[in-house]
Amino acid sequence: MPHLVIDYADSLAPSLDMDAIMDDLHAAAMQSGLFKETDIKVRAESWRHWRLAGNQAPLAHKHGFVNLHCHQLEGRSDDDKSRLADILMEALKPHCEAAREVSVEIVEITRATYRKHKA
What's one GO MF term for it (predicted)? Predict the structure, then answer.
């Protein structure tokens, strides 16, 4: 943990250096001091079909979205989660100048319902 999952509009793909974004987000998660390096996972997925504010106009598709979900196990303080969101946003923003909206969401995973198997 954490899982850093980047969702982005596929129309932004030419302007996003996803390897650099993932490297910077990994470094930012490390900088937070909340995670071990070996526990941080980062992945990205582009979305072809989407709406921004209910609008499918060319402007919306030309200037799409980047949304980072940071899934982590429950138990951290609100201050830690807020600081983490700020650190991740600062790492993400410089890469997303073409995006109309950039967001970061900290998602808590309930320990009682989470399962993990290592092969």
Answer: 5-carboxymethyl-2-hydroxymuconate delta-isomerase activity
φ/ψ of residue 47, rounded to 5: -120, 125
Query: Structure tokens of 64?
Result: 């799409």
Q: What is the pLDDT of residue 72?
A: 97
Cβ proximity of 42 and 6 under 8 Å: yes
Residue 45 tokens read as 């997925």
Q: Taking a C-beta distance cutoff of 8 angstroms, is the pair 95, 24 a contact? A: yes
**Residue spans per domain, the chain:** 3-113
- Report the C-alpha gap between 34 and 20 in whole angstroms: 21
Pair of tokens at residue 7: 């969702």
115 Cβ partners below 8 Å, 6+ apart?
none
Architecture of domain 3-113: 2-Layer Sandwich (3.30)
Return all residues near 61 (Cβ < 8 A) that are at least 6 apart: 9, 11, 52
Give CA 91 to chain center in angstroms.
10
**Those residues with Cβ within 8 angstroms of residue 110's Cβ, 6 or more apart along the chain or in another chain:** 74
